[in-house]
Amino acid sequence: MLRARIAGHALALVATVLLGGFLSATLVRLAPGFDADERQLDPHLNAESLQALRTARQHDHNVWRFYFTYMNRAVHGDLGTSLALGQPVRTLLGDRAPLTLRLLTVGLALAWLAALSLALTAAWLRLSAYDAVTTMVSGAFLCIPAAVLALLSVLWNVPGSLAIALIVFPPTYRYTRNLLAKSYSQPYIITARAKGLGEARILFWHAVPAVAPQLLAVAGVSVSMAIGATIPVEALCGLAGVGQLAWQAALARDLPLLVNITILVTVVTLLANCGADVIGHMVRGQES
Amino acid sequence: MNLWRKLACAVLAGVLCASAAANWLAPAGYARQYREAANAPPSRAHWLGTDEIGRDRFARVLYGTRISLLLAPAAALLSTLMAALIGGLAGYLGGLWARMATAVTDLFLSLPWLFLLITARALMPLNVSPLFSVTVTFLLLGLLGWTTAARVLCATAGSLRSADFVRQARAAGVSGQRLFWIHVLPNLRPVLYAQFWISIPVFILSEANLGILGLGVAEPLPSWGSLLKELEGLVSVGDEPWKFVPLILLVAVVMSFQFLLSGQDQVTA
Amino acid sequence: MRSVMRVRRVCRRAIAVTLLCLGSLTGRAVAQGGGELRFCLRMEPKTFDPLKVEDEASAAIRYLTGGVLVRVNRQTQKLEPELAQSWKVSKDGRMITFRLRSGIYFSDGMSFSAQDVAYTVQQLMDPALHSATGDAFRSGTGNVETKVISPTQISITFPAPVAGLDRLFDQVAILSEHSPRKEMAVLGPFMLADYKPGASVLLQRNPNYWKTDEQGRKLPYLDSIRLDIQANRDVELLRLKRGELDLINSLDSEYFDKLEAASPQLVHDAGPSLDSEQLWFNEVAKAPIPAYKKNWFRSATFRRAISEAINREDLSRVVYHGHAQPALGPFSPANKFWFNSKLKPQAYSPDAALKSLQSDGFRLENGVLKDKDGNEVVFSIITNAGSKTRERMAVLIQDDLQKIGIHVNVVTLDFPSLIERMAQTFDYEAIILGLTNVDLDPNGEMNVWLSSSENHQWNPQQKAPETSWEAEIDRLMRVQASSTDLKQRKQAFDRVQEIVVEEEPFIFLINKNALSAVSTTVHGGAPVILSPQTFWNAERLTVSR
Q: Which of A16, A164, C35, C424 is the least buried, fewest Cβ under 10 Å from its Cβ?
């Protein structure tokens, strides 16, 4: 049963990734400014050079042909060459992915540590004052622009992963808190308490497992939130990661780079969410 | 109604009244440029000082409140409803529907929507009123912002399918549609409220960031997002603490929303 | 294909390591103790090939590593000998003869001779190259002939006269013909030691650099230069304040004031630069805008009235905090020789503007200006997002024009969308952009003023000049391009400047000041207005911590 589920997920993953790559190529190609090159504005370039600039971008015009050629090459390990930076995409991503991965892992770990500890203690204590304070803290961080958090981390010389943690923490905390609060209002919790079960036991053995699948789903989407946060954080903290590369690629309409980055992000997102799904089903299976 | 909810109502009401009374509280208006007094500190004439081109910051906060406080919750509501329909319904129906919804959601989370927004700007004529531009922006944000909650709702609705009360209702003969709207959907409230609450400041901030694509509010109309962008010149903001007022205001409003929303679900000692 | 790329990558790494070893060995042997200079590049350098340089970051690296035949002294603006001891331009402006220094070696030990100059010129003039540096020499069709007269003498003949021929060689870094290191073998004061994509570029002293100072000490004094890649100006300023950077080459006016308040000894205002910011209207006949708007924009009276209604003093004072001057015309007064000193400042007078609009059939009704057919005067100004100064100028102009009843919508777009509208679809009404002038010579802007050119922004690629004044500008620009008589060229371009101010195809707004910040740890710094402002004399700088 589990094996069939995993196989099904794997197939869906591959199909979704391929579709994601194609859709992103289409989005980039159809958006205005695809053909535009800053060098067009250089008054030193004569007419022939400008024409050469234009023809250089022609071959990416047909999205189908581009994607087909790309898939063909990708199967052999060649991910194309970046238009803006003139380097092979594989080298670019290979050099930068470890940094971003480290940033994401540490950032997510810190965010979840903070979110879980605050949410669990809030659920345990059930004090309105405590809830008010945690709401204020998480609300404050939610309202501070990501760019400002990144700048603050540069100002105070703290690692960029802390900025990412502070961006991901507020929504994660809110979802977790709300789910736990709902879980606590279930009739069987009241019964358990009436029967004299300790608060710790109620929390960890009944309240949390009841919402485990949802918490896992939140964990899955928090990965997407963290990925989104890497773009301003890396750009401002001067970290040469995939987020900074993605921003440069978007501004330059660098089709090969953007398609590869989208595929990478889709794979990571799908793995995170499907992983959460699978574990969720396992937990639910165990429960029933 | 407990003390926190009363306080929250008072804060929201106060902010709304102040913004409605902007014409009287800040008669100078949000666009008038006091060019001799650009970047001035707070004074009797300008309670929160002036911005880089001499516009009264207090007036801009008040008028910006009208835009942001009206449109951001509306967009948040839109994204929450879409999340409920796509995520909740699919999760409840289960099977292929759930599988398709999760695939669509995951795809949505990964695509570079920046280019869709750039295309949306290109389709709009250059001469549109600032209000139209900001309304379209929030509409787009609402249409694109449902993905996070949809995933969680899918999981929640999925586990509700096998919940006792749902089984009982089904056994009692309640139809599928009625079952979803009256029994399942209300139990998705924790996630829906969380989504709504998170979306408000996220959309307010995103609207300002979309200014680089030509979307968002157009000059000279202010919005909270554009006011918060001033904080990005952080190197010296420590010397200009009055620039934090829009942030404090936003935090207060966001907290008030949370207290209003969490009233029913909160289990107090 | 893949194996070639891998080999190239391995080679590049090997070269870098070898250079690093060589550099550290020889560097240590003749250590000057000048220290390491650190500053930021705003973006990733796109190429290390000096012939293909088109962006600011690559140009900075070329300036520091490339050896040129002649150098425009950025401080005196005069042409000085470098690798060439002397040179002579023929009367017809087509041939230039250089007499080169002898006993000079590339950074990898290969000897330098006239052969390398011939090789570089042939590479540069290759029609397949398509670079801005090469195109500057392309005044006519035909081949460029290089004649190596002796190892230290070379003559280069162009098919047609090239205006300002000698000064153009300031941009041509000489490559080695025979070196296996290709463009990594350099003649300049520094050489590339390490490149971390997205993070930093490290340049080390070139041990074979030929220049010595007046006391006979070998140049450069600095041991190395580290260039970090940082696009965000707030972070750059922060790092300077913290002592992590030694200079900021080009500082924005609001950061200038913030820094001046805290540490006035760090900031430098070198006065008006060559850069200008301008507003122009879409005059393209086939533009997808309403016909009545095209009529406004194509009317010189309308454009002059708009120019008169804009308060340039306020733009300088409010947006640039006083670190800018109202522009008088296409060239900045900082361009001492070429600026037409007879030009008068543009007057600010909304009343006069309204009067001249009224004479053209416009009328003011309830605070709204309407044209002779009753259309409300409403148009949009687009500019690139990310430039706070341009956005603010647009808002000030919006306010200024509101006073004469014109409603302006300000739209900020991302740069590629902007370029597409401006140069391809012509779907815009008015636009604010800036011209950053690298050269003093107006011939560099030939493609802006020629009506048939693509860069004739307000109405590009005209088959024949659509107005008499554009035809006159075409004629005058051709005169100055083909003439070798400096006085005649100046006369022609003076007249071009007068016509532009009269017809206002570009409404020139302001000339920015050249602002920079240099830490007190740097000795010998003398910021100027020509780029590169702060490190133009990098070979004579020292850093002490």
A: C424
- Say how far apart CA C522 and CA B130 lie, in whole Å: 49
List the structure tokens of C252.
């924005």
Helix, coil or strand: residue C103 = coil
State the chains in contact with A (3 or more Cβ–Cβ pairs under 8 Å). B, C
Compute the distance between CA of residue C531 and CA of residue C166 in angstroms, rounded to an integer: 18
The span from the CA of B165 to the CA of C368, in Å, is 66
Strands C430-435 and C153-157 turn out to be unpaired
CA distance C382 to chain A (A): 15
Residues in chain C, overall count: 545
C43 pLDDT exceeds 90? no
Tokens 């620009």, residue located: C477
The list of chain B residues with pLDDT below 70 reads 1, 234-237, 263-269
- In sequence order, the β-bridge partners of residue C88 are C97
Mapped onto helix, strand or coil, the DSSP state of residue B263 is coil
Would you state the pLDDT for residue C479?
A: 92
Chain B 150-189, residues with CB within 8 Å of chain A CB atoms: 151-152, 154-156, 158-159, 162, 187, 189
The residue count of chain B comes to 269
C511 backbone dihedrals φ, ψ, rounded to 5°:
-110, 120
Q: Which two tokens stand for residue B254?
A: 């966001």
The tens digit of pLDDT for each residue in A211-243 reads 888 899 999 999 999 999 999 899 888 888 999
> What is the DSSP-derived secondary structure letter of residue B56?
B
Burial of C523 by CB count in 10 Å (0-12 exposed, 13-18 middle, 19+ buried)? Answer: middle
Residue C235 to residues A150, A236, B107, C240, C252: CA-CA distances in angstroms?
A: 10, 7, 34, 9, 13
Locate A145 and state its tokens: 């622009």
Strand segments (E) across chain B: none
Nearest to A86 by CA among B150, C101, C52, B110: C52
Q: What is the pLDDT of residue C464?
A: 93
Q: Which parts of C245-330 fold into alpha helices (H)?
A: 253-262, 291-297, 300-309, 312-314
Asked if residue A103 lies in contact with residue A239, where contact means CB atoms within 8 angstroms, the answer is yes
Please give the model's pTM, rounded to 2 decimal places.
Answer: 0.90
Q: Which two tokens stand for residue A285?
A: 């299976």
| Residues C312/C540, Cβ–Cβ less than 8 Å | no
CA distance C291 to C419: 23
CA distances from B46 to A49, B26, B226 (A): 55, 9, 19
Asked whether the predicted pLDDT for residue C121 surpasses 70, the reply is yes
> Would you state the pLDDT for residue C8?
59
- Phi and psi for A207 in degrees, rounded to 5? -65, -50
DSSP structure class, residue C151: T
Quick one: B6 exposed, middle or buried, by C-beta within 10 A (0-12, 13-18, 19+)? exposed
Q: Before A159, cis peptide (omega within 30)?
A: no
ipTM confidence score? 0.90
Span A256-284, average pLDDT: 87
Give the pLDDT confidence score for residue B148 in this predicted structure: 86
Which of A35, A44, A158 has the most C C-beta neighbours within 10 Å, making it the best mutation to test the interface with C?
A44
Q: Which B positions 210-229 lie with beta carbon below 8 A of chain C?
A: 211-214, 218-220
Taking the C-alpha atoms of residue B159 and residue B156, their distance in angstroms, rounded to an integer, is 5
Q: Higher-confidence residue: C304 or C231?
A: C304
Nearest-angstrom CA–CA distance, C413 and C212: 50
